[in-house]
Write a structure and sequence with these properties.
The structure holds two protein chains of two kinds. By secondary structure, chain A is mostly helical. Chain A is 72% helix and 0% strand. Chain A has a single domain, classed as MetI-like fold (Orthogonal Bundle). Chain A is built from ten helices and no strands.
Chain lengths: 296, 262
């Protein structure tokens, strides 16, 4: 913890961060121009004295909404949904393979764990770390030149990163399950796959769904920016208006994106409370195995 | 029953998404020129570059590893500065958004926090680029705003979920609310909060690497440059550098968590 604090302090005094330079006259005039002209919605820029720009402003925003606002929002939304479904499917298949309690000659009964089993679970977990370590934006950047222009690079980039996170969280959750009932299933003669399908799966599902919706929230947030690389999500139109110097449109789109993210937060919160209510009989107190499900 | 219904509807939503984005399964595999790029890129995975791949390197330019090392250092510095600023902003906001304050303060703070979080750090960066021009402090603030919001949200949940007994005991014994907060509640929720701060540092590293795509001198800058020059082995060096940073943090925070939480 102290090391982290020292690192924070060092960063500010490393000379790499131009705090003073932010307050020079050139920056101030940049800011002034931005606020008074560029960022001002176009119909409000040259208003005569006493004239109300409200009607013109409404017209302006409804035009933008019809031109690309609505399209930007729906593509962003569907990209994140599809990405999360793919990520969830990958995680469902791989989490049992990453759980050290299951990857065992004799799960929940034997004590020793042989080398082949160790290697198997370690490689599944290693894969999850690699998928997660590379940011979505970089995955998308790499995928675009390989896959060409369609929504796939964005979908796959989000799916890859979140698959890494969900796979690890799923494996951790399985490891943290109370072993008594699973051991009982094994001792009654259940095979490994019977234990997984009949026991582990139903015990893990509520928590898994919680992670799913937590990650969905951040997925929408990430999906807004991937478009800046040239695929169709909100970021594409943000970047487009930026390169045309239409900063008023850019800010309008960013505000739309913020609304979408807030909406996704709300949907996720609602879905999570549904899952919690349905799952409280088996899980009295929910505890994250890792923090990575919460927040970005 | 209810859960399988949720699963099925999630799957259905995925199909609707697939259909409304106009996707085709065939497009998922690289073809033609894309296939060439994919093959060259993947075959470079096991031989990351240790030196420039370009045939001609201007005399006097620093060695490749030195440049990447510098980029790595700046990535860490940007992340460290952004996270420390986010912590300074986020901690007070977390208290103001928790159950410790009356509803009339809590609700507006939560709305404010939601607003900070809802705009992605790269979009903040784009806005600051337009408003100020290229300035590293602008990049730090761009990362710090949404991160402060997320920290405040999660910290406030942790404060609310922490066992209240010792806090109530101190209040009952005559401590003031701030004494009880610093004496009991903060130490109770502290380990969880510290572990989460570590996780956010990992995220900040990724964000600061990506900011390089916008011209800031972090790892993303070199990654993009190398990729566009088709120097795939150099790209892998950058990717492994990011992976290395995340691995270090993962082991470090794992150790810390076992010591603090367990």
């Amino acid at each position: 913890m102290i090391a982290l604090l020292l690192l924070g302090l060092y960063s500010w005094f490393s000379g790499q961060i131009q705090v003073a330079e932010l307050f020079t006259i050139r920056r101030a005039s940049n800011l002034k121009r931005f606020l008074t002209q560029d960022a001002m919605p176009k119909p409000l820029r040259n208003l005569a004295e006493g004239e109300s720009g409200f009607a013109a402003l409404m017209q302006w925003s409804s035009d933008l909404w019809n031109d690309f606002g609505l399209l930007a929002l729906t593509t962003t939304f569907w990209i994140s949904i599809l990405a999360m479904v793919l990520a969830g499917a990958y995680a469902m298949l791989t989490s049992p393979l990453g759980a050290r309690t299951l990857m065992h000659e004799d799960p929940f009964v034997g004590a020793q764990r042989g080398l082949p089993w160790r290697i198997a679970s370690a490689s599944v977990r290693g894969m999850a770390i690699f998928l997660r370590a590379i940011p979505e934006y970089i995955w998308a950047f790499l995928l675009i030149s390989m896959l060409g222009p369609s929504a796939w690079p964005a979908v796959l980039a989000l799916a890859i990163h979140n698959a890494g996170i969900m796979s690890r969280l799923g494996a951790d959750t399985i490891e943290n399950l109370p072993p008594q009932s699973l051991r009982a299933l094994r001792l009654l003669g259940g095979t490994r796959s019977q234990v997984v399908i009949g026991g582990v799966f139903s015990m893990v599902l509520p928590r898994f769904l919680l992670f799913f919706f937590y990650r969905f929230e951040t997925c929408v947030r990430e999906a807004t920016i991937l478009g800046m690389l040239g695929v169709f999500s909100l970021g594409y139109w943000v970047d487009d208006s930026r390169s045309r110097g239409r900063y008023d449109e850019m800010l309008y789109l960013i505000a739309l994106g913020a609304l979408l993210v807030l909406l996704a937060d709300l949907v996720s919160w609602f879905a999570r409370s549904l899952v919690r209510d349905a799952g409280t009989s088996t899980n009295t107190k929910f505890k994250d195995p890792a923090e990575s499900s919460r927040g970005d | 029953m209810r859960r399988s219904l949720v699963l099925i509807s999630i799957g259905l939503l995925g199909f609707i998404g697939y259909w409304s984005l106009g996707l085709e399964l065939g497009q998922i595999l690289p073809r033609g020129q894309g296939f060439q790029i994919a093959r060259d890129f993947l075959s470079a995975a096991f031989t990351p570059a240790l030196d420039y791949e370009a045939e001609f390197v201007p005399a006097g330019s620093p060695s490749f590893l030195w440049v990447i090392g510098n980029g790595f250092q700046r990535t860490v510095i940007f992340a460290g500065a952004a996270l420390s600023l986010a912590l300074i902003l986020g901690l007070p906001l977390a208290v103001l958004a928790s159950g410790l304050v009356p509803t009339s303060i809590r609700i507006p703070t939560r709305l404010f926090i939601a607003g900070m979080r809802s705009v992605h750090e790269l979009l903040w960066a784009v806005v600051f680029l337009a408003a100020f021009g290229l300035n590293s402090a602008g990049a730090i603030i761009a990362i710090a705003i949404p991160y402060a919001g997320t920290l405040a949200k999660v910290f406030s949940e942790m404060l609310d979920e922490a066992p209240q007994r010792s806090y109530q005991a101190l209040i009952g014994a005559g401590a003031s609310r701030s004494q009880a907060f610093f004496g009991a509640l903060l130490p109770t929720a502290g380990p969880d909060m510290a572990a989460y701060a570590f996780y956010r540092f990992e995220c900040a590293l990724r964000s600061s690497a990506v900011l390089g795509f916008f011209g800031y001198p972090t790892l993303g800058y070199y990654l993009r440059q190398s990729f566009e020059n088709l120097h795939y082995r150099e790209v892998w060096t950058c990717l492994y550098a990011i992976l290395f940073a995340v691995l270090i943090l993962e082991t470090w925070s794992g150790k810390l968590r076992r010591r603090l939480v367990a």
